[in-house]
Specification:
heterodimer; A: alpha/beta; Rossmann fold; four-stranded antiparallel beta sheet; globular; B: mainly alpha
Chain lengths: 272, 305
């Protein structure tokens, strides 16, 4: 399998100016339904990029296209300037792209701790044979894994739940475990799909702080889908607005807030 | 009641149960085990009867080293076949994979029946014996089972085993977490085939001098699945217990006469009703504690806060 990004990474094409992620004229049709219609935007390294839009606007579809779960009808996804449109999800993850799921897809039968261990990258000393023989290299790698998961558990306040099956956790804990699991893959870009769904205002504030903290601690670029507009306005550097699969606005929160098309999409306008 | 011959058969049943369990641990319902069992057995039967270098004696004896070599070769051939076939069939999921693997079992069975060198319906006979009595096979069968158990138990605390569990729970999410799901499924499939192939090579010598196409059929596939269903699929001990029990049962019920097959059927029917998770459940293992507890090997000690 080819690695379209390998060459560009080494040649330094990812230098200043190249966006971390770019979607170009991305279109996705399901039969007669146009879920996304020529959507383009770019996410710069280090920013928190918001994605808002009414229900059914195509936000989650866009995530599925970016993470490789759904092939686009046309258009391209670029990672550090190189196309990754044909890569399967696991390769995109290994490039540094991790996501959470709106409807939570944890490994429910596994413990919280195992959910994180599964997501950790492979390290030297972890070949099948070394693992079977429990070689010194394997044991060292295993200790490193435990350190990493321990750190993540602590960061997201899940230590006390480490040995509980993920399926038995309360909703808020499950949401945080999803974020922890995505972080365990050591991403550069974290795609959050409605991380604040079902939270009360105080919890939403905490989540905002958490996202900012994680971004600085893990040098992340973050993309957030969220319905709660005030939260995104506070959190994001820039945002894009989708409506019926079309990108109707792009810019800073202030720019977006005053965009007439956004006001129309959210508050309703005159029918054409 | 239970003589050495039956004990070896029970161990073979347990080995085949583990072979069905391995892909299942990665969420793949594959019934291909009898095909790989037949391939391993046929290879061993052919080699020992027609390759003089292995040292089969005129009196039907067979050197132990050659026997062990056959176990290895049987496993390798089956594993190689699984690598080729797996790329193709593992694109299918759920019941479609089960059907495709049943087709594989049939293809292998018909091939063995019709190939010019596999002896047709009679099969290959006068297979030399490395051991004078059935008791001799106990040790290699136990050794193979110990090896399979060791691998399964180690997998629980290895990245591959965890990836298998993740794929079983949610293949899509596993892919998004950087797990090469195709490769994980294929590895489990190949491990399963290697075990079945080695078991076949052992059985070819053990089963009364003849080896033919009847050894790996659809019926066998269903019986092996029953091992896992009765024993439980959450730990490798489940199929071991299931394989031991269900292989012994028809023999132990022999005094009942023809009614024994009815009773056997009843056990398979009632097993899942009375023990929906199988006889060996994670809860049971936890209560028993000890080294067989899932994932107990130097995980809990490390970081559990």
């Amino acid at each position: 399998m080819s690695h379209p990004t390998d060459g560009s990474d080494r040649s330094g094409a990812a230098a200043a100016g190249t966006p971390l992620l770019e979607v170009r004229e991305l279109t996705c049709r399901f039969g007669g339904l146009v879920a996304l219609d020529h959507v383009s935007f770019a996410v710069q390294p280090g920013e928190i990029f918001g994605l808002i839009g009414p229900n059914g606007a195509g936000k989650t579809t866009l995530y599925n296209l970016i993470s490789g779960l759904t092939p686009p009808t046309s258009g391209a996804v670029l990672w550090r300037g190189a196309p990754i449109t044909g890569l399967p999800p696991f390769r995109r993850n290994r490039l540094g792209l991790a996501r959470t799921f709106q409807n939570l897809r944890l490994f429910d039968g596994l413990t919280v701790h195992d959910n994180l261990l599964v997501a950790l990258r492979r390290q030297p000393g972890e070949s099948l044979l070394e693992g079977l023989l429990a070689s010194a290299g394997h044991r060292r790698a295993e200790r490193q894994r435990l350190e990493q998961t321990g750190q993540l558990l602590e960061e997201l306040g899940l230590e006390a739940l480490a040995n509980r099956p993920a399926g038995t956790l309360a909703y808020g804990d499950r949401r945080r475990l999803e974020i922890a699991r995505a972080l365990a893959t050591r991403p550069t870009l974290l795609l959050l799909d409605e991380p604040a769904a079902g939270m009360n205002p105080a919890e939403k504030d905490d989540l905002c702080d958490l996202i900012r903290q994680l971004r600085s601690r893990h040098q992340l670029t973050v993309m957030v889908i969220e319905h709660h507009v005030p939260l995104l306005m506070r959190l994001c550097n820039r945002m894009a607005v989708l409506d019926f699969g079309e990108r109707i606005a792009l810019g800073t929160p202030v720019q977006v807030r005053h965009d007439p098309r956004v006001i129309e999409a959210y508050l309703g306008g005159n029918p054409p | 009641m239970i003589d050495n011959g039956l004990l070896v058969q029970m161990l073979i049943g347990a080995l085949l149960g583990v072979s069905v369990y391995l892909p299942l641990a990665a969420g793949q319902l594959s019934l291909a085990t009898p095909a790989f069992y037949a391939v391993g057995g046929t290879l061993a039967a052919l080699l020992s009867t027609s390759w003089p270098a292995l040292g089969a004696g005129a009196d039907g004896s067979f050197p132990l080293a050659s026997f062990l070599l056959e176990l290895l070769l049987g496993g390798l051939l089956a594993g190689g076949l699984a690598l080729l076939v797996g790329r193709l069939v593992l694109r299918l999921q759920g019941i479609y994979l089960a059907i495709a693997t049943i087709a594989l079992v049939e293809i292998v069975r018909v091939a063995i029946l019709n190939l010019p060198f596999t002896g047709g319906a009679i099969g290959i006979f006068s297979i030399p014996q490395p051991f004078p009595t059935a008791a001799g096979y106990l040790l290699p069968a136990l050794g193979l089972l110990a090896l399979a158990g060791w691998v399964c138990q180690r997998l629980e605390v290895m990245p591959l085993g965890r990836a298998m569990a993740a794929v079983r729970h949610d293949e899509l999410a596993a892919g998004c977490m950087g797990i090469d799901t195709t490769r994980v499924k294929l590895t489990a499939f190949v491990l399963s085939a290697v075990l079945a192939g080695s078991t076949g090579a052992l059985a070819a010598h053990f089963l009364l001098n003849t080896w033919n196409a009847r050894q790996g059929s659809f019926d066998t596939a269903v019986t092996m699945l029953a091992f896992v269903i009765l024993g439980g699929s959450r730990s490798w001990l489940g199929p071991v217990v299931g394989g031991l029990l269900l292989t012994a049962l028809p023999e132990l019920l022999r005094p009942v006469g023809d009614g024994r097959l009815v009773l056997f059927g009843l056990v398979i029917l009632l097993g899942p009703v009375l023990f929906p998770q199988g006889l060996i459940t994670p809860g049971l293992l936890e209560r028993l504690g000890g080294p067989l507890q899932p994932g107990s090997w130097f995980r809990r000690g490390g970081s559990a806060p």
